[in-house]
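During the practical work, I worked with a single protein chain and the tokens that describe its fold, as given directly below.
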Amino acid sequence: MHLRTYLSCALLAAVSLASPAFARTLHVGPNGPLRTIAEAASQVQDGDVVEVEAGTYRADVAVWSRNNVTVRGIANARGKQARIIADGAQVQGKGTWVVNGDMTIENLAFIGARVPDGNGAGIRLQKGRVRIIHCLFEDNENGILVANDPSIELTIENSEFGHNGAGDGRTHNIYVGAIGKLRVVGSYFHHAKVGHLLKSRAAENYILYNRLTDEVGGSASYELEFPNGGVAYVIGNVIQQGAKTENPHVLAFGAEGYKWPNNALFLSHNTVIDGRAGSGVFLRIRPGYQQFVAVSNVLSGNSGKLESLADPAAANRFANNVYLPMSAFADVVDYNYRLTADVVRVVRAQASGKANEMDLTPEQEYQHPLQTRPLKVAPTVPGALQPRTE
């Protein structure tokens, strides 16, 4: 055998021994080789892609335990998603899907998860690094419920969570346990049923360029809560508390006691609206944290100031947090909290600086629905939304 041919064959043999089998693509649809998502979950191997045709999949519950799997909904010509409607079905007493491995989940809707103990989830994440892109979670007892495991990492992008919760105050649009890292970008949280719009016990939290607005008819408690602290970067979000809430606080940090070695909250360029009829507090923050920074936020409504809750023993920095009336916004009825031209002429942004090498200056802004748009220049005004000329 020619030496070059021999070396090529030897190299191919070595690669085949060191690498897993080639990834497959499994197709799910009413006329496909697989009719249900559950069938695909039972056959999937590490590295596979599962494509799910648009349509309604009733009681199609599944457990996913392989790694590096992608499950992707394929929209039809009208842009409709594949919709997974629980219809009373569940797995392991936990919800519609149970996830135990590294996955990407894209362009799917999870609707109506119920379980006997009232804690059902559209997705119950128990292990792995999971990325969720352009998904809908609606009318579940929990949209997503995540276990307490520091090895878990969860990323959510351009997704919607609405009308989740059992109405008991213990179930939420999304409830993240004591995991290593949570990152949420370009997503829309609204109309939680008594529970929170977003609740996270993660050690690291990156809440960037989202819309968390409970709106007319919403009855959420906190809009955003970190009950055990951790490090939370909250940058460029529109956050609005609805009029029907029973909770006087919009945001909360450390309310149930600090569990992580590092506990710091960084609020930069958020627009925070308190729509509650009575007086309230923008932020409930428990003493015992190491650092609290609030810079270039816009605050409006009946709540008190962020600074009034600061722990004097901690490293705090407050700069350019602007309190404005509702008339300062373009259209509060339509939840358009962009500042009017008159206000833009008199308020200016200040440099946000860095925290732990994280730049607190926003580079994007939320664009409804379920998008972000890049900012062409540095922010010129405080708050989450910049003048449209930039």
The radius of gyration is 23 Å. Residues 26-374 form a domain with the Pectate Lyase C-like fold (CATH 2.160.20). The longest helix spans residues 3-18.
